[in-house]
Amino acid sequence: MPTVAPLDLDGHCLAAVFLEGVPHFALADGTVHRLDHGHKWTAVHDGLLCATVDQAGKTLLTGGEDGKVCRSGGDHAVEVVHEIGRKWISSVAAGPQGALAFATGKSAYARLADGKIKQFDHPRTVEGLAFAPKGLRFAVARYNGVTLHFPGTEGKPTELEWAGAHNSVTFSPNGEFLVTTMQENALHGWKLSDGRHMRMTGYPAKIKSFSWAPKGRWLASSGAPAAIVWPFQGKEGPMGKPPLELGTRGNTMVTAVAFHPTEEIVAVGYADGMVLAVRVADQKEILLKREGKGPISSMTWDKDDRRLAFGTETGDCGVIDIAG
């Protein structure tokens, strides 16, 4: 039976992650908590807005209401990577070889491995950022589409247009597809080789979480009373194919999803704090955590494939060990 090591915090958990095997929990108040031979915490920002793990899994990148982009790691040290003044850092993304991107207002910035920073301005507010799995290329989600930048060159950006507000963005692990969440209850995607559109609609609520299967064969998403899992095995992605609906629980909404690092098993978190693990192949379910104090807001598996860190909107956090 899975076991749960709880960590009862006070505040909205924006990111529950592992840094070199140690669970960390970044809260909206700007504190980062960790379970490292006891509960410890560090004040990183005066108000936290976004957080992500670097590609090596060693440090946490964060952006705050204080205009700072910070990097913090398992050694408890906090490095201010960049400070932009009295502006909110609304999005951060981790790239290859230590590169990173961050956004404030209508501007996106890429910080290259050598420390140089390039600024990219847009007509409308930057909502989300993501790096491609190969090469130094990053995507900017914005109103009416996505802009692809190549910060290592002087070439023109690529514009992918689709009417409406695009809030967050992700590349498929093979780099063939790009998908955004929208202000309307939908996902939108592009096949990058030819720009073909992919519409993924029918959600009853906004999609706040998505996660790719380890080889990119599936994309799981929240925003419904089940995890909506789209097939991406073919060259055309999910077009013409219905999604799977995993972990249906009446009218209880799914609020977070996280695919296992090596298996086609998805952790499904709900508005009532419950967490299930569901295997794609046969839709078999395993209860990982019973109902709690608030909606699941973030989940991440560790690299050993057996532990799942989770956080909620009310600070009900912890670590699930699926091996018991």
TrEMBL record:
It comes from the Bacteria. Gene3D superfamilies: YVTN repeat-like/Quinoprotein amine dehydrogenase (2.130.10.10). Residues 258-322 form the Anaphase-promoting complex subunit 4-like WD40 domain. SUPFAM superfamilies: Quinoprotein alcohol dehydrogenase-like. This is WD40 repeat domain-containing protein. It comes from Tianweitania sediminis.
